[in-house]
Amino acid sequence: MHNRVSVTDTFIQEANAPHIAALEEDYDHLARQLARRGVDAEALVERAMAFRVAVPSWGLGSGGTRFARFAIPGEPRNVFEKLEDAEVVCKLARSTPGISLHLPWDRTDNSAELRAFAKARGLFFDSMNSNTFQDQPGQPLSYKFGSLSHTDPDVRRQAIDHNLECLETGQALGARAHTVWIGDGGNFPGQQHFRRALERYLDSLKTIYGALPGDWRMFIEHKFYEPAFYSTVLNDWGTSYYCARELGDRAFSLVDLGHHGPNVNVEMIVARLIQFGKLGGFHFNDSHYGDDDLDAGSVKPFQLFLIFNELVDAELSGVGGVPPAYMLDQSHNVTDPIESLVTSSIELVRAYVQAHLVDREALAAYQDANDPLMALQTLKHAFTTDVTPILATARVRASGAIDPIAVYRSSGYRRHASERRPAEARSSAGIV
Ligand code: RM4
Ligand code: MN
Ligand code: MN
Fold it and tell me: Residue 287: nearest ligand to its CA?
C-alpha cells in the first residue's frame, strides 16, 4: 500500500559526490573570512545542524486561493501519503522531522499505525491544529457565524469538543502542543459585540486549556482579518498576550508572519512577546499584502533575518522560552510543495545562522553611543554574509543534499508519485 521513499540516503550521497570538493573549498574560504571576524564557522555548522522546524501536513498538497486550486499530479491524497512526502523534505534538508497535523483533515481511525508509520520514516508529530473555520460534512451546527466565540453555547460546545478531540488524538500520536486558530469575527461594523465575543472565546479556551495534558503547551494564533473582513476575535498580539496570560503558564502566543497588517514591525512584536515570556511558536511564511502564505524568506528576507536577530539575541542572553516551536505554515499554489518546504526550511536556517554572525558587543556599543548608522551596518554586515557553504556543509554532515532541489528533480519522485497516486476529485477552490 505505502511506498518507501525513492530519495534514499545513497541516492543523495551519489548526487553529492561530484560537488564535495567545491563545497569544501568554498567552506574553507568562508571559514577563514569568518575567523578574521572572530567567528568560528564550525560552531555555526553545529547550530545549523541542530535547527528544527516543523512541516505542516496541509502544506504538502497543492494549496489554492479562494478563486481556484490547481492540483499537481502525484500530490498526496491522505495523511500517510503526506508523511511519505514529508520524509523526502526531511531527507533532503535534514531540518524537518516534526510534523504539524490539522484535524479533521488528517483524521485517521488508527493512530497507532500513523505513529508507527511516521516513526519508521524518522518523523514525529509536533503540534496539533484544530479546524473550526469550516463546516465538515454531517456536522450538526454551522461555524458560519463563529465557533469558540459563537453566540450560541451549543456551537461553542461543538467547537470545544473538536479541540478536545485534537488533544486526544495528539496524545495517541505523541504530540506535545496544540494550536488554536479560529476564523471568528465580523464582516460588518456592529455585527459583533467586541468585548462579549472575546469573553466567550476566552471562556471556551479555558475549557480546552483545562483539558491540556500536563506536558503540553497551547498556542493561540491571532490574525487581524480573513475570513472575517472587518474584525476578528483574536485580532492582534496584544489580545493574544492578554488571553495567554489569562489562561495560564502553558498557554502562549503564536506568531504567524502573515497575520499582521502591512508594514507592521513583526520583529518588534517578537521581541515584546519574548520579553513578556509568552512567545510560544511561529508559523513561518512570507507575504506582500496579507496572509499570502508564500515561501519563507521569498519576499522579505531582511525581515526574516531581523526576526531571527531577536530570537538569537534572546537565546544568547539566556532569556527563557527561546527557541519557541518553529513551524512552517505555507500554501503552495504554484510550486511543488516538496520544493517549497525544502527551500523554506533552508531559508530559516540561513536567517538563523546569519543572526549568529551579528557582532552583539559592537551593536550594543553603537546603540549606547547613539550611532544609528553603525548599528545598522553591524546588522547588515551579518545579513549580507553569504553563509550558503555553512548551510550546505551542515546538510552534508547530516546526510542531506548539497543541492536539494537538483537532487529532488533528478530523482523523479513526483513523477513516480503521480503513477502510484492517481488523482482524486477534489474541490477546485480552498486554502489547502
Ligand atoms: C490560517 C492560519 C492557521 C492555519 C490555517 C490553515 O490562516 O494560519 O494557522 O491552520 O490558515
Ligand atoms: Mn498559521
Ligand atoms: Mn495564515
Answer: 3
